[in-house]
Amino acid sequence: MREFINVLRRFVPPYKKYLVLSVVFNILSAVLNIFSFAALIPILQIIFKTGDGKAATGWMAWDWGNAQEVLMNNLNYYVNTLLAEHGQTTTLLFIGLFLAFTTMLKTGAYFLSSATIVPIRTGVVRDIRNQLYRKITALPLGFFSEERKGDIIARMSGDVQEIESSIMSSLDMLFKNPVLIVAYFTTLVFISWQLTVFTLVIVPVMGWFMGFVGRKLKAKSIKAQSLWSDTMSVVEETLGGLRIIKAFCAEEKMRQKFDRINTGYRNDIMHVNIRQQLAHPMSEFLGTVMIVIVLWFGGVLVLNYHALSGPTFIYYMVILYSIINPLKEFSKAGYNIPKGLASMERVDKILMADDSIKESDHPQHIQQFEHQIELRNVSFRYGDQWVLRHINLTIPKGKTIALVGQSGSGKSTLVDLIPRYYDVQEGEVLIDGINVKDLGIQDLRQLIGNVNQEAILFNDSFRNNIAFGVETATDEQVAEAARIANAYDFIMQSEQQFDTNIGDRGGRLSGGQRQRVSIARAILKNPPILILDEATSALDTESERLVQDALERLMKQRTTIAIAHRLSTIRNADEICVLHEGHIVERGTHESLLAMDGFYKRLNDMQNLG
Predict the structure, then answer these.
(1) How far is CA 77 from each of CA 34, 67, 310, 461, rounded to the nearest angstrom?
(2) Domains (ranges, CATH) in the chain?
(3) Among 125, 421, 582, 596, which is least packed by CB within 10 angstroms?
(4) Sheet holding 400-405, edge to edge
(5) How far does the chain reach from its first CA to its final CA, in angstroms?
(6) What is the pTM of this model?
(7) What would the pLDDT profile of 458-478 be if each residue is shown by its tens digit?
(8) Cβ atoms of residues 29 and 113 within 8 Å
């Protein structure tokens, strides 16, 4: 229960007014229910002629010490007055109308109490999804290299849905049923404290059975949700690798893998649901047993000891039966909540994940890049393995620096340190003499444009992809960026021109077209620093020529850091740095590096031979 209270403390405070309204309407509903059922006593007295004439000799003044006696006397007095004035059948009609009117008020209050919970339920689930999305966009890239995309999607979909159906659906039960239980229990004590004390001996036994099954549920739920994540991961991998699956005739292998994981999830969720279905039958049975025992003991009090009248005992049983349903609903919440808490634990692995890329408490704000980028004695590692060691590199404004080397030599990691996608473990990265850790993250990244080997586009129109991140861009500026990037012609030839949707990840475009759209996006951003990460390596010769032409226009008057496998694309760089096993082993111009007859010369010779 402590975990559940913590969840409420985190997410419910913005909706306190709805919570207060719900409690008020629940109290009103409980009070009206008690008074409406009180009409049963005079109805039974009239029908079975069991009225107590002594109790109705006159109207008694209120006395807290004898509240029960005063209420019963005045009720009988009022009913007897009606009987004397209007007769039995008319009095029954009056009492029946009173019962119908109070029931209408009670059901109205009941509806309002449930309706005021709905904004809390839906609002909390929306807030959790928003927090998850904000956290996902805020977390460093390193977090996602250790997590599967399918698992993250499962947490945003399946786990949040489970929180809604388990925890949030229990809010109504938890804020309504305790009010009803307290109100009904107070009434039971008021009618007969002896019978109520006897009832209390039985209730804890029922509660113990409920808790025993509920404790087993949470562990199973955690395992089931984990297998759901595995299922989503296989689906995500299949959609991303469908071409390879078909090329290697691996459809059956993937089907068997999915079936194995899906069957495991089905078996675990089946056990959870079967145990959950036990809640209602168990509570129904235990409730009936309790009623039978109380009926026997109450009969003894009525028949042998005359501790209370027959109609009053029936009213007691009606209220007791009314308390059973809130207790059953309360026990159902006890089954549902552990499932939701299991999902909340998985969601919290994202919400509570450490964001290692933190902005300084008092960041420096810069709007322009004036002088140089400097990597000073930089070392970086993933886990325990060093990827870069003792890197010293100065990139003056307006110069083009190329990074070459074998795959895994640390080129992409090096350029990822400049916009702070990762933070260095040793040394520092400086822009205009300021450590990037001291700069505002948004200010830093506004200075930098990226064109990657894989053009990352969104399932949207050409216009929105090119203007991505530049909210104030006009149609003319978007079109001009497309012209500079050699993308204007093929965009204008599409069905709806700049409003044409390019499909998921730009799937309706060729590789060269996707790359030119991403270059147009970088041109429109107009950053002073440009990072090119193998921007042409995946293209055919004709597309490479068009893209290279667009890149050369983009690089004009910009500070450029270019990663390249094809050395022909960086021959004109102001300086070429050769990385090998995390170290810069050679640097210079294309001609000077060839003259060294070292790593660069061997790379160049291998490409020429190819």
Answers:
(1) 20, 15, 18, 80
(2) 2-351 (1.20.1560.10), 372-609 (3.40.50.300)
(3) 596
(4) 448-452, 529-533, 559-563, 400-405, 575-580, 583-588
(5) 67
(6) 0.67
(7) 878 888 888 887 778 888 888
(8) yes
